[in-house]
Amino acid sequence: MVTVETLRLLADIGFMATSNGMSAQAKSIFKAIGQIRPNSVLPHIGMALNHLNLNQFQDALDVLEKKALKIEPDNPTVRAFIGMSLMLMGRNSESEKFLTPLTESDDPLAANLAENLLQELKHHADKKSAPPKAPH
To answer: Are 106 and 92 in contact (CB under 8 A)?
Structure first.
């Protein structure tokens, strides 16, 4: 039996791998975690992050919506990554609808991620709505 600590360590290694351009290795790690714990959202979050790092935003969204949400429909971390995927696809109003309620989440990771993404959305919207600067 694989312990929870071992799974967390494997997941951390998978997250480090995808963040450092080792997507094939990350995919293998998250696939193995999924085989060990098929009812966990963790491998799906990892796979989605791997897709995001490869600029495969729709694939990330598909994994989160079709796999992770089926396991835990109210998981705030899953929902935060859905918001991120939507934002990266340019679907900002949908992203904002997903992220705004998460700012009140008891999950500090999800709340912090949602806050940061909403700030990024606001910053992007402010840049778009700013009047053009007059030439000097």
So the answer is: no
Determine the residue type at 122: K
What is the CA 62 to chain-centroid distance, rounded? 12
In this prediction, residue 133 carries a pLDDT of 54
- pLDDT tens per residue across span 18-33: 999 999 999 999 999 9
Q: What is the pTM of this model?
A: 0.88
Exposure b/e, 56-71, CB count within 10 A at least 16 = b: bbebbbebbeebbbee
Q: What are phi and psi of 117, to 5 degrees?
A: -70, -40
The 3-state DSSP class for residue 99 equals helix
